[in-house]
Write a structure and sequence with these properties.
The structure is a homodimer. By secondary structure, chain A is α/β, with parallel strands linked by helices. Chain A has 2 domains: 207 residues, Rossmann fold (3-Layer(aba) Sandwich); 155 residues, Glucose-6-phosphate isomerase like protein, domain 1 (Rossmann fold), CATH 3.40.50.10490. Helix content of chain A is 47%, strand content 15%. The first copy, chain A, has a 5-stranded mixed sheet with strand order 1-12-11-7-10, with helices on both faces. In chain A, strands 3-2-4-5-6 form a 5-stranded parallel sheet, sandwiched between helices. The interface between A and B is large, with 117 and 116 residues.
Chain lengths: 401, 401
């Protein structure tokens, strides 16, 4: 992972560096990276589900997005994972109806074990299995905190295979734990390499270099009212990573402190597609965005375009070139144009798209999020505002209105 | 389509109303709604491609997003459409390798006919067919402007089935034209009903009511520096519609005028999922957003949850309820919480999710976009800033750097 920051370097911030170093030692997210034993047990424990042709994954938010990002990068197993995170009834029925339930596993993930969405998904699905007189208990596993929550009680009653969600790690920070492991194990994603990437980042990094982005973000958010952080990924396989980023970033930094409201809206963009849909706005629109390009140095190679024998410049430019050549030219053309027009910009490049580099990238974004929160003096681990909405929803549901 | 606007009504703006009325008469997008003949010819003309098991759709931006939105809503044909809009080499190879090319059609869509991405996709794919000695010319169709562009010359040389892109309608406004028709025809999407929805909106609407959102958006963008427009859709089937919106909105409104920069960043969100990832930011973060809920009154019904026989409140709340009950309760809980917390808000509700209502919605957003641009005194039809990036990209590609 390499950084190209289009701004003058910030001087070391000793307080910030000390704080982050302390987190590397003590914060459960990072401390848990020291020993692979428990997560690799989950990875192995889910292996028997790989004998199903399909596996439904129920969960929402932090119980789903990290796993989706891993699954998008790598799937060499023969098992198809279906992440059902929403409760749209039509989409739910459509999905269930396409599957042969006899050969479909169910995994229900909920940190608290009381979240309405995955419980609804699970209960309706189980009713379908029972309607087809399938012995679903053998095909179903749950992952939740080890306490008397609803999902855990359900698992106990039906003797389901059960995995623990760590008690002290929030949903949006859990991708290196059992939650990532259970998905990785199902799709042969190299989870040990993934964690090694994160571990190496923490152990070897020059903290001041690593925290340049956080220092810059906090600075431009406070001083220049920049209120959007655009992540433009130049890889289809990183789209779900950018969705994961949106939750991590939005939920951690959208906070009030001393009567001020903080939070840069995360905006995900996909290169080269969004050059054709969003670039006009980035170039001519308000200068309210900090744009990060996430790029991959070494792409898979396609064939080269053979001569078309038509006298037109559009063909002559492409002849002899691969799709990767065009992809890189577009990426560089867009970056350099944004730069030439004075946009706030950086490039984070991965040498290759693999488990190790993704582990580095996801750990980096956790660190950057936490460091930015520190500089804004807000708590990156809570989400105090959403409780009201949940209470209202349950009231409306109970009253049938 | 009904509106619930959480702000005091704006008085009629006669100049704006007259301008929009004039567009309904004269602007090619709207004028072309008067007669279905030519688009239904395209709809029928593509029918023979429905005999393929799979069809690859090449195109990017406006040549892809509208079609994707239609396909997401309705597919009753046995043909699978594969929208390949990006030029990620690994994803491209993966896609081509999963298909049986003998039974796979190719449709290449490019308004200008000279766009590098779809030409690269087309040329590399044709090479694959030739490597398998498949007579691809019969399986391939193109849609482009009727002039001497590269794609047209290619189609002429190989005698490909060819459809015309209208000359006077820009890519992001083309969903009601041949571009929408070609996709609709492949997936049995009711294109006549879709256009009827748009036509009825234009003919029957009280313009002042229809333009409330545009007047509000322009007002809060200019006076209160609101710089983000969040579209939160409560339907999985509207996710691709929200992607289409992002292009229409971003590219039309991201403009400079008299030294000022305009453009609210379009932010797409999916309910209920983004309640678990973005709601904290919307509630406690900066008040820089105008949030539109797009909801559906009548959802498909699932079974009700049967008694679980476990003494836990989380189960008792769900028992006897359908997934739709929960979905509606979550939607209302979130809307009311945002409202109670003083967020800028409205709800656009569709009675059902069908072609007619989607036609209304897409036409509405075109009108709202154009009206907002009028009030900001910018041109909603051009995209002057992106040319520089294209030139750079082609230079880098030619130089091989």
């Amino acid at each position: 992972m390499k950084f190209q920051n289009e701004w003058p370097a910030y001087a070391p911030n000793d307080k910030l560096n000390t704080y982050i170093k302390g987190l590397f030692q003590n914060l459960p997210i990072f401390a848990s990276l020291k020993d692979d034993t428990s997560v690799l047990k989950v990875y192995a424990g889910i292996e028997r589900f790989k004998f199903y042709k399909d596996v439904l994954i129920f969960g929402i938010g932090g119980s789903s997005l990290g796993g989706q990002a891993l699954y998008a990068l790598n799937n060499t197993s023969n098992t198809n994972l279906h992440f059902v995170d929403n409760i749209d009834p039509a989409a739910f029925i459509q999905k269930i109806n396409t599957l042969n339930l006899k050969n479909t596993g169910i995994i229900c993930i909920s940190k608290s074990g009381n979240t309405a969405e995955p419980l609804m998904q699970l209960l309706l699905t189980v009713q379908q299995y029972e309607a087809h007189t399938i012995n679903w208990q053998k095909q179903c596993a749950v992952l939740t905190e080890p306490n008397d929550n609803a999902l855990r009680l359900f698992a106990q009653k039906h003797s389901l295979l059960t995995f623990d969600h760590p008690l002290d790690i929030g949903g949006r920070y859990n991708v290196f734990t059992s939650v990532g492991a259970i998905i990785a194990g199902l799709c042969d994603f190299g989870f040990a390499k993934f964690r090694q990437g994160a571990r190496d980042l923490i152990q070897q990094a020059d903290l001041t270099e690593l925290l340049q982005g956080a220092m810059h973000t906090a600075h431009i958010h406070k001083k220049q009212n920049i209120n959007q952080s655009v992540m433009m990924v130049y890889s289809n396989y990183l789209e779900l990573f950018s969705e994961w980023f949106c939750q991590l970033w939005g939920e951690s930094l959208g906070k009030q402190h001393k009567g001020k409201r903080y939070g840069l809206t995360p905006v995900r963009a996909l290169g080269a597609v969004d050059q054709h849909s969003q670039l006009q706005l980035y170039l001519d629109g308000p200068r309210d965005k900090f744009i990060t390009f996430i790029t991959v140095d070494n792409h898979t190679t396609t064939n080269s375009v053979m001569p078309v024998n038509i006298d037109h410049k559009a063909f002559q430019t492409l002849e002899g070139k691969t799709m990767g050549d065009l992809f890189k030219a577009e990426e560089k053309g867009t970056f350099d144009t944004l730069k030439a027009n004075g946009c706030l910009l950086r490039n984070i490049s991965l040498s290759k798209l693999n488990e190790y580099e993704l582990g580095q990238l996801m750990a980096f974004y956790m660190i950057e999020t936490i460091a930015t929160a520190y500089l804004l003096e807000i708590d990156p681990f809570d989400q105090p505002a959403v409780e009201e909405s949940k209470i209202r929803a349950m009231e409306y549901l109970t009253k049938g209105k």
